[in-house]
Amino acid sequence: MTFQTLSHDTAASAATLPAPPDAPAGFPDRIAFFLDLDGTVLDLAATPGGVSIPRETVRAIGRLARRLDGALAVVTGRSLADVDHILQPLRLPAAALHGAELRRRGGGRSAGAAEPPPARLTAALGAFVDQRPGLSLEDKGASVAVHFRASPEREGEVRERVGELVDRLAPTHEVQPGKMVAEVRPRGVDKGAALKALMEQPPFKGRVPLVFGDDLTDEFAFEAAVSLGGGAVLVGEVDRPSAAAHMLPDPAALRAWLAELAEAA
Ligand SMILES: O=P(O)(O)OC[C@H]1O[C@H](O[C@H]2O[C@H](CO)[C@@H](O)[C@H](O)[C@H]2O)[C@H](O)[C@@H](O)[C@@H]1O
């Protein structure tokens, strides 16, 4: 495996990471792909429902999944229903809601970890959002998100209030910060644990993971992949340390990279 494990302590180093090789080592027989969606494959949009994906990207992902013998999964904060809607007609293995919803090859779903937060928390978040123009609540079941992209000046207030409400009302859940969003997800559920769970079974077992992501939640998956001898590609520049050893400037660059690899395959 040629993906190096590097340590990146500064934003400057993260901004100067090399691009991933055109043909990653182990492709297609010994490697597994894990794709984050928003900010990675998808350009960010004003609202969760405002995203779109070029049809040729869906075709490229489908083709790569076949070439990898099915060892291509989505790892996302979105729900499985959203994943299938965005990537239709594909139905890929997926760790949705940060891993609270897990779909292995063949459509089997995990049960258990996907309990929603207490209703009193969702009600309190709803009341908070209703009183502040520009905020919105995305209720995804096991995970709930407060979005402030339309009101970025409210970031401090949102992060503080969501943290306080979760501490007081939802001991089963914890806060997951993200881009213009404060999410609430089940405690201990993260993309790293989800990646490791998928890697335990075919078609992932015996391969090395390569993860593509952009946000804080993806760092769990980056670290898990590196710990399993694989690698990570950060999409977009960040002002934080990252476990990724490679970088692409934006989702368009990743879509082009995937299309080229699919074409070559
Ligand atoms: O894990 P991901 O696939 O990256 O999903 C993370 C969250 O993505 C969505 O929110 C983000 O994208 C929106 C559309 O571009 C944007 O409006 C918002 O500001 C971003 O935070 C999604 O709505 C969340 O449920 C996901 O958890």
From TrEMBL:
Catalytic activity, as annotated: alpha,alpha-trehalose 6-phosphate + H2O = alpha,alpha-trehalose + phosphate
Keywords per UniProt: Hydrolase, Magnesium, Metal-binding
Pfam families: Trehalose_PPase
The keyword Magnesium is annotated on this UniProt entry: yes
Biased segments, Polar residues type: 1-10
InterPro entries (alphabetical): HAD-like_sf (IPR036412), HAD-SF_hydro_IIB (IPR006379), HAD_sf (IPR023214), OTSB-like (IPR044651), Trehalose_PPase (IPR003337)
EC number(s) per entry: 3.1.3.12
Pathway recorded for this protein: Glycan biosynthesis; trehalose biosynthesis
MF GO annotations: metal ion binding; trehalose-phosphatase activity
Cofactor dependence: Mg(2+)
Signal peptide extent: none
Keyword field contains Hydrolase: yes
Gene Ontology biological process: trehalose biosynthetic process
Region (Disordered): 1-21
Function noted in UniProt: Removes the phosphate from trehalose 6-phosphate to produce free trehalose.
Family (UniProt): Belongs to the trehalose phosphatase family.
Protein name: Trehalose 6-phosphate phosphatase
